[in-house]
Amino acid sequence: MSAEALARLATDRVDHRFKGLPPDAEGLTVGELAAQRRDLFTGGFTTPVLALSAERLTHNLELMETYAARHGLAFAPHGKTSMAPQLFQRQLEHGAWGITLAVPHQVRVAREFGIQRVFLANELVDAAALRHIAADLAADPGYRFICYVDSVRGVELMDAALRGTPRPVDVVVELAAGEGARTGVRTEEECAAVADAVAATPTLRLVGVAGYEGEVPRADSERVHAWLRRLVALAVDLDRAGRFKDAGEIVVSAGGSAWFDAVADVFAGIPGLSLPVLKLLRSGAYVSHDDGHYRRLTPFTRVPEEGALHPAFRLWTQIVSRPSPGQAFANAGKRDAAYDLDLPLAQVVRDAGSGEIRDAAGIEVTALSDQHAWLRTAPEAELEVGDWVGLGLSHPCTSFDKWQLIPLVEADGTVVDYIRTFF
Ligand SMILES: Cc1ncc(COP(=O)(O)O)c(C=O)c1O
């Protein structure tokens, strides 16, 4: 990665653009504020403020590094989760092969920060974006870029946009996760037709197959395994038909954060092919994990002997109204918390007077307005206006995207760094 571009993040000024940061830090650089090692609770931060646990983040990075290595998987964590180059850097330091992305803007962000291997898990038919990527490939021989193709028309559009560019763009055929699933080619016959179309262009090079088991309809272990076996069989068939002859290596890619155990299982059985195989896992949500959706879905509940991810986010919000014994309102809402999969979970209360932290017993989030959380409080709930409430969140992707500069906080409350996001 580009040390220079990363270092520039620390020279940015702390100001009104960044929610939750101390008003009295206005004008300091991000690096200067980090060097002050302020306390999250007493250092002038304003609510709501999202905190990312330094220790839990490190734990998750280490766990997936060892998991991927143990199972012989290369790892291209999905960068759309955090869109945080500092976290991309940590992921690469923890053994990642490269970074997965979804749309061209995200590729620009990654390239600005010097990412050398990008896996775009999407078909790309935007001519302007393709020309930009082709120019980037031409200018940087060390840059590896791979994207999906999922139709003959897509291949034709890509070819038309790329005519005259010096380096072919590497593509993998996307196999749909089933009938009625999201993107991807529905049948093996159509995959062969798309592969033929690629072979007929001078601008594209077929290097493998990919898909996303997270979209398998009515997913369960059996259906996910069956689809992954289909993906592997497709790679074997295309290889036998000589369709990867110029590839150098064959890419077989799948895997979010809900089924990487099935991916590890099935990819362990990939037979010898005509070229070395890059088995590429693309989990993204693991990086912060969560207190809802992914806590329920994590494969580590099926393979507890392999470890456990730790939820790393806590959204700190303050009680601004307690109109009745059964009701309270906190000052964080849809602008601040993920709400597309589950409501936040009240976890702890930090007492406004003593600063002590206690369990949020009897406190439940029942709804979110734009800027408020609606809390239902049982008789045993101890809660006053002014108290801070720590919320657990569900869905990492829609938590990161609401915050542009996220304090990285150690267990004792010391803020040691600030994570910049680019959405
Ligand atoms: C194509 C693709 N690959 C990988 C992922 C990463 O999955 P997860 O967010 O469960 O880590 C996603 C997530 O939406 C995806 O759409």
UniProtKB/TrEMBL annotation:
Source organism of the structure: Streptomyces avermitilis
Domain of life: Bacteria
Lyase is among the record's keywords: yes
Keywords from the UniProt entry: Lyase
Record GO terms (molecular function): lyase activity
Protein name: Amino acid deaminase
Family: Belongs to the DSD1 family.
CDD domains noted in UniProt: PLPDE_III_cryptic_DSD
Gene3D superfamilies linked: Alanine racemase (3.20.20.10), D-serine dehydratase-like domain (2.40.37.20)
D-serine dehydratase-like domain boundaries: 312-410
InterPro entries linked to this entry: Ala_racemase_N, D-amino_acid_metab_enzyme, D-ser_dehydrat-like_dom, D-ser_dehydrat-like_sf, PLP-binding_barrel
Pfam families according to UniProt: Ala_racemase_N, D-ser_dehydrat
